[in-house]
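Exercise 7.
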Amino acid sequence: MRALQVVSDQPHQLTIGTLAKTLALPRPTTHRIVEALLAEGMLVSDHLDRLGLGSRFVALAWRSLETSDIRAVAQPWLTQLRDALDETVHLAVRNGLEMVYIDKLEAHRTVRMASRVGTRVSLYSSSVGKAWLAAQPADALDGWLEQLELKPFTQHTRITRDAIHTEIDVTRQRGYAIDDQENELDICCYGSAILDPRGAVAGCISVSMPTYRFVEKDQVATLALIQNCVSQIQQRLI
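Solution. The predicted structure, written as tokens, is:
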């Protein structure tokens, strides 16, 4: 499972040697693990012996998505939000130190975005990530930030812990997150956390749009629709 997690977390395929080093295991041990996972279709290997997730793993992941409680509960309300704003809507959950999109509803108007279901985005540059961080206890924020490897995705990305800490404090106070071209150029997003009955984050939603529409759109009306969507989902979580 640790091997699968490491391969899944890598933006690019990696070799057995790199995997062994990351897992802190002897290369022969790692090789035996990889061979078993390859045989079961959980991993694949290309002509350069680089490893990636296999078709069986992907099929299991899709089956998990199809039966996801938060995804099933949220989908009608995400659809309503997408239709009301005609902007792209995402649903994400945290996985490790990143957020993973588990649903994406495209705007009717064509918007070229890099995201898709399964895309992983950072906790500190994406609106869903910032919404997740802002929903955590204030005294836990430094602990999360210390674990993050901060790197710029665009020239707008905040890459110092002090700047991110300030941004999360502002996000917590106003009740929603903003990604102002910090994750992808020319794309801006609003983000909000969905809380379960215990007050824990069940998932986060974002509304993404080109920068020019973000500037033109009525912010008050947009945020009211987002908050209504979050409220409707929260009321239906068990």
